[in-house]
Amino acid sequence: MTSRRDRQIGIFDSGVGGLTVMAAIAKLMPHERLVYLGDTARLPYGTKSAETVSRYAVQATRALMRFDVKLVVVACNTASAVALPVLAAALAPVPVIGVVEPGARAAVAASRNGHIAIIATEGTVRGGAYVRAVHALKPNATVVQKACPLFVALAEEGWTEGDVPERVTERYVRELFESADVKPDTLVLGCTHFPVFAKQIAKAAGSGVTLVDSAQTTATEVAQLLQAQNLKRQGAGEAPLFLATDAAERFARVGSLFLGRPIDNAQVELVDLAP
Amino acid sequence: MTSRRDRQIGIFDSGVGGLTVMAAIAKLMPHERLVYLGDTARLPYGTKSAETVSRYAVQATRALMRFDVKLVVVACNTASAVALPVLAAALAPVPVIGVVEPGARAAVAASRNGHIAIIATEGTVRGGAYVRAVHALKPNATVVQKACPLFVALAEEGWTEGDVPERVTERYVRELFESADVKPDTLVLGCTHFPVFAKQIAKAAGSGVTLVDSAQTTATEVAQLLQAQNLKRQGAGEAPLFLATDAAERFARVGSLFLGRPIDNAQVELVDLAP
Questions:
Q1: CATH of the domain at A257
Q2: How far is B59 from B275, CA to CA, in rounded Å?
Q3: What's the predicted TM-score (pTM) here?
Q4: Which of B48, B49, B246 lies at the smallest CB-CB distance from A52?
């Protein structure tokens, strides 16, 4: 039987965007064994109701639990924003870490003027989880937020350069900042798809605005939890496992963009979540 | 018991795009009773595998069958393209009409030079159903096709005017026509989301290109089938029924754009497709 330390870290996302979080975890903790599940049959979560996202997330993370993981990272912002308490209850005693709290913590640490902007999916914005998480840390912060669903579609299409993403970014950032009384000095990329447009977003936001990407902060939080619970693995790293609920070829092709290195079709295993 | 003629026509789509087909049917056949189901919990179908689309489409249309419908119209191009035989078998003896055959028929009728272009979702393009349907009617036609997934996202975001949809359209149409030896004189809008960009597509395609939207042709085919099977309803029309598998508010808001008239939240009923 595998000792608890040697067990895998499970990483869950609605699709391939969470691979940015996986990349950050792999870089910070090269000794850990990782298994990633993308619920590609039912993505995107960002346009769905909280009830449906919760139900799907519980089903999907149960498939990760079959690997006897020592920790589950919810790399999906929407699921973190609307389903984290439900997931924590469903997976207990295995600890669950989302990306919203770490993102909010990084934003509060980065902001000097206390004005913070959030861009995310419709579901994340509607649920207000980032706003609550920021206020829990800094009650007098002002927060504006905007749903930017086209970024998801552009990233999935691979249109990350050129005038189309530039125009889309300009319009989103303009509308976001127009809704603020004081210009925010910190902008949270509250969806794992958005870091691929970081260059355009930084340009549209202008100087003096810090972009916060929760992938790094989440990886740090994972490292701290493993340290605190004496769960750090020693020994050589292993190739990660990729699971998808649909379309392995598309997962490998689009996922490579987010992981930052090629994924072979044959590395992606299809899993069925049917109850 | 309701006589067969008085029963409803069921219209099925992955989301709200099929409301363009519903609008065409309602206009041509104002006496008919209509029930529409959008599988909004699991949209979009266009990026999913044929197996998953078939499974979801069978589950969704079964929910329509509870209304004892006299006919099912598959208003979703992707489901029509990859799941029509499966659906016809699952719903027999109730007749099933898809949108691909009517679209192909209209394209062949419209084309003078025999060069036809198709734009659709990834799933529809990959499955090749339009190409087969055109060749079945006109074996020596040449067909080029291109997946245009960003149109779906733009339409759902309501960005149907301005420079973003214009640039996206220009790029898609340029890449589509670059893949053709002879410029097509007919362009099929092979996704129910695309007609909202008809103006931009016509401009990018240039003069001498006819756009084909399968909504009208499908409505005509429905009328012919009702006539042939003596299933036409007499009497006053009724308000249609709208069913969605998730997010009724979003269905009403985005759906109004496609139906061409407002939909009230309260008119949309949530249904659970869980087996």
A1: 3.40.50.1860
A2: 8
A3: 0.88
A4: B246
Q: Give φ, ψ of B57 to 5 degrees.
A: -65, -40
Nearest chain A Cα to B40, which residue?
A48
pLDDT tens sequence across A123-146: 999 999 999 999 999 999 999 999
Q: Do B112 and B149 lie in a common domain?
A: yes
Q: Verify that A32 and A167 share a domain, yes or no.
A: no
- The residue among B16, B40, B45, B48 with the most chain A CBs within 10 A of its CB, best to mutate, is B48
Give the domain extent around A108. 100-214
Is B203 found in the same domain as B120?
A: yes
Pair (A79, A134) in one structural domain: no
Same domain, A82 and A130: no
Same domain, B129 and B229: no
CB burial of residue A76 (10 Å; 0-12, 13-18, 19+): buried
ipTM of the shown complex: 0.84
Based on the fold, state whether residues B108 and B209 are members of the same structural domain.
Answer: yes
The radius of gyration computed from the CA coordinates of chain B, to the nearest angstrom, equals: 18
The Cα–Cα gap between B25 and B248 comes to 22
Q: Which residues of B touch A247 (CB under 8 A)?
A: 47-49, 52
- Chain A partners within 8 Å of B46 (Cβ): none
Mean pLDDT taken over chain A: 95
Inter-chain Cβ pairs, chain A and chain B, closer than 8 A:
65
Query: What are the pLDDT tens digits along chain B (275 aa)?
Result: 679 999 999 999 999 999 999 999 999 999 999 999 999 999 989 989 999 999 999 999 999 999 999 999 999 999 999 999 999 999 999 999 999 999 999 999 999 999 999 999 999 999 999 999 999 999 999 999 999 999 999 998 889 999 999 999 999 999 999 999 999 999 999 999 999 999 999 999 999 999 999 898 999 999 999 999 999 999 888 999 999 999 999 999 999 989 999 999 999 999 988 65
Q: Is B92 found in the same domain as B61?
A: yes
Q: Please tell me the distance from the alpha carbon of residue B44 to that of residue B23, in angstroms, as a whole number.
A: 21
In a domain, A275, yes or no: no
Cβ-Cβ contacts under 8 Å, B15 against chain A:
none
CB atoms within 10 A of CB A272: 8
Contact B156 A171 (CB under 8 A): no
Cα distance from B42 to chain A (closest Cα, Å)?
A: 5
Q: Which of B191, B204, B209, B226 is catalytic?
A: B191
User: Is there a contact between A241 and A268 (Cβ–Cβ < 8 Å)?
Assistant: no
The reported pLDDT for the residue numbered B158 is 87
Residue B226 counted as domain residue: yes
Q: Count of domains in chain A?
A: 2
B-chain residues within 8 Å CB-CB of A250?
47, 122
Q: Which of A55, A59, A164 to mutate to test the interface with B (most CBs of B within 10 A)?
A: A164
